[in-house]
Write a structure and sequence with these properties.
The complex is a heterodimer of chains A (about 475) and B (about 90). Chain A has a domain at about 5-255 and about 400-475: Alpha-Beta Complex (Amidase signature (AS) enzymes), CATH 3.90.1300.10. Chain A is about 40% helix and about 15% strand. Chain A has helices at about 5-15, 20-40, 45-60, 105-110, 155-160, 180-185, 220-230, 270-285, 305-320, 335-350, 350-365, 370-390, 415-420, 425-430, 460-475, and strands spanning about 40-45, 75, 115-120, 165-170, 185-190, 210-215, 260, 290-295, 395-400, 435-445, 450-455. In chain A, helix 8 (about 270-285) links the parallel strand 7 (about 260) and strand 8. In chain A, helix 2 packs antiparallel against helix 3 (about 45-60), helix 7 packs antiparallel against helix 15 and helix 9 packs across helix 11. The radius of gyration of chain A is 21 Å and the shape is globular. Chain B has a two-stranded antiparallel sheet with strand order 1-2. Chain B has a domain at about 1-35. Helices cover about 35% and strands about 5% of the residues of chain B. Classes of the chains: A alpha/beta (about 475), B mainly alpha (about 90). The interface between A and B is large, with 73 and 51 residues.
């Protein structure tokens, strides 16, 4: 388990204590040993990885200095475009799609000396909370193979959790990075909307979508975020807000930070074991001289309903592009053009994707637009205002990530609404566009991870990272050994 | 089924039945939003617009390099003479 930290790898590769080639071989070996049981990766192209590692070693040998992520292996969710490397979105409809370009995040990672170790499994187009909705395989939780790793970015979470990669890229529309991070005992960040360019991220719901990051420490996360954030001319919604050096912002203590505890996140279906763990974490943070303040986000109870109008509505429009013309699956021998569209889409999309396209089409259809989509965007304003008011009084919020620990594979697949409700504590951050970080907090008695969530105001990623670093240093979480080994 | 047509989707009978049930279940839940008083509330479609966004979203209309034709067509299920091919429409 040597060299799992991105910072350590990068330092060692730059000082030539170890080569990028050796890092790559270590990861490939680990993937060989682990992934037949975990099924986190959809594709690992070994020769491509080796060639890229040699290239990095050559750059280092030539004295190239600007490589903050030299030799760092990154697992990339399969809905993020990688030039000439198959990108399926976990969907049959893109089974043979080879992007002709790199996503901006991939471009920036490579420029910083990192390499893509492989493409990871996900719920089809990011639609799901368990990675069970993939057209290809079911990814397993490394702490209990009978349970889900969370989703939709489950593959990247598992890859980072088991050190098959040092860093992971995921994407979020309603919690798809934070929830799997909490299920797999790693850190998962959903940044401010617009912090990271979405160019090359296959669109699901454009007003909510964000690229998110997985790492094993706040320091790695800070470095990762500094490399990939910032304005990109290819994404008009990327924010023209300067990117701080997040790593140097970590040095301060957390003394005097005001932490809000929103009461709406501690009621209803919250599992007792999670409540106990979060309550303990709040006491621990108080012991680090954070000031604890009870607050209220009154519109939280409407967030899931709001999300399940906005996200499917935008998805139904974004996914209209899969028509079997320019790329992706086309049904053989269609009778006419219209049949080519409908049968290609019907055979290419899985049930959850079709369900959401249907909900979205309904919510946007003539006569229903005002009642559903318009109203949902108004409620979104109220949810955002709740946060704005609370952040006048506090620096960050502490909440659970998921109402339950990792659930059993198959447990929620027949009840879409039950699956949707598992997003209850994560969707508000997407609706309000604020950054939110999931960090390891505890384990249940039977060895399942529990995550803690931190929210901050827009573009205040440094605040949540700072709290995460202080908390993880003072109260490190000891994981039980993986049983699948 | 009119919605399915609008979305260019097609369901067989068994699928349609399961779907309708789940669909209704989800719609019932979504109805919750009617409880909220939204009179006079603005709709939010972009959550993190900065004040100076206009200077960033508009740019000069310059010709920049784009994908070569061959690469643009490389993922197409069917193409001919530098175009995408589809079943005959006329």
């Amino acid at each position: 388990m040597d060299f799992i930290s991105a910072l350590e790898i990068s330092e060692s590769v730059r000082s030539r204590k170890i080569s990028a080639g050796e890092v790559a071989e270590t990861c490939l070996k680990r993937i060989d040993d682990f992934d037949s049981k975990l099924a986190a990766f959809l594709s690992v192209e070994r020769e491509r990885v080796r060639t890229r590692a040699q290239e990095i070693d050559r750059l280092v040998a030539q004295g190239e200095r600007e490589l903050p992520l030299a030799g760092v292996p990154v697992a990339v969710k399969d809905n993020i475009c990688t030039r000439h490397l198959r990108t399926t979105c976990g969907s049959k409809i893109l089974h043979n799609y080879i992007p002709p370009y790199n996503a901006t995040v991939v471009e920036r990672l490579e420029r910083a000396g990192a390499f893509v170790i492989g493409k990871t499994n996900c719920d089809e187009f990011g639609m799901g909370s368990s990675t069970e909705n993939s057209a290809y395989q079911v990814t397993r939780n490394p702490f209990d193979l009978d349970r889900v790793p969370g989703g939709s970015s489950g593959g990247s979470a598992v890859a980072v959790s088991t050190a098959m990669a040092s860093l992971g890229l995921g994407s979020e529309t309603g919690g798809s990075v934070r929830q799997p991070a909490s299920f797999c005992n790693v850190m998962g960040l959903k940044p401010t909307y617009g912090r990271i360019s979405r160019y090359g991220l296959v669109a699901f719901a454009s007003s909510l979508d964000c690229i998110g990051t997985f790492a094993r420490s706040a320091r790695d996360m800070a470095l990762f975020l500094s490399v990939i954030s910032g304005r990109d001319e290819h994404d008009a919604t990327s924010a023209p807000v300067p990117v701080p050096d997040y790593l140097s912002e970590l040095r301060d203590s957390v003394r005097g930070i005001r932490l809000g505890i929103p009461r709406e996140f501690f009621s209803g279906g919250l599992d007792g074991r999670i409540k106990l763990a979060i309550d303990q974490a709040i006491r621990d943070l108080a012991a680090l001289d954070c000031e604890i303040v009870e607050v209220s986000l009154p519109h939280t109870e409407y967030a899931v309903a709001d999300y399940y109008i906005i996200a499917p509505a935008e998805a139904s429009s974004n996914l209209a592009r899969y028509d079997g013309v320019r790329y992706g699956y086309r049904v053989p021998n269609p009778r006419d053009l219209s049949e080519m569209y409908s049968r290609s889409r019907c055979e290419g999309f899985g049930p959850e994707v079709k369900r959401r396209i249907m909900i979205g089409t309904y919510a946007l259809s003539s006569g229903y637009y005002d009642a559903y989509y318009r109203r949902a965007m108004q409620v979104r304003t109220l949810i955002k205002k709740d946060y704005e008011q609370v952040f006048e009084r506090v620096d960050a919020l502490v909440t659970p990530v998921s109402p339950t620990p990792p659930f059993k594979i198959g447990e929620k697949t027949d009840d879409p609404l039950a699956m949707y409700l598992s997003d209850i504590f994560t969707v508000t951050a997407n609706l309000a566009g604020i950054p939110a970080l999931s960090i390891p907090c505890a384990f249940t008695a039977d060895g399942l991870p529990i995550g803690l969530q931190l929210h901050a105001n827009q573009f205040q990623e440094a605040t949540v990272l700072r709290i995460a670093e202080a908390y993880a240093r003072a109260y490190p979480v000891t994981a039980p050994p993986f049983k699948f080994l | 089924m009119k919605i399915a047509d609008l979305a260019h989707l097609h369901f067989d009978e068994a699928e349609a039945e399961a779907f309708t049930r789940q669909f209704q279940h989800i719609l019932d839940y979504i109805e919750k939003l009617r409880e909220v008083d939204t009179a006079g509330i603005e709709a939010t479609s972009h959550v993190s617009l900065t004040k100076d966004f206009e200077q960033y979203i508009f740019r000069e209309d310059e010709i920049k390099p784009s994908l070569p034709l061959e690469e643009s067509l490389a993922n197409a299920p069917d193409s001919a003479n530098g175009h995408f091919s589809v079943p005959r429409v006329i």
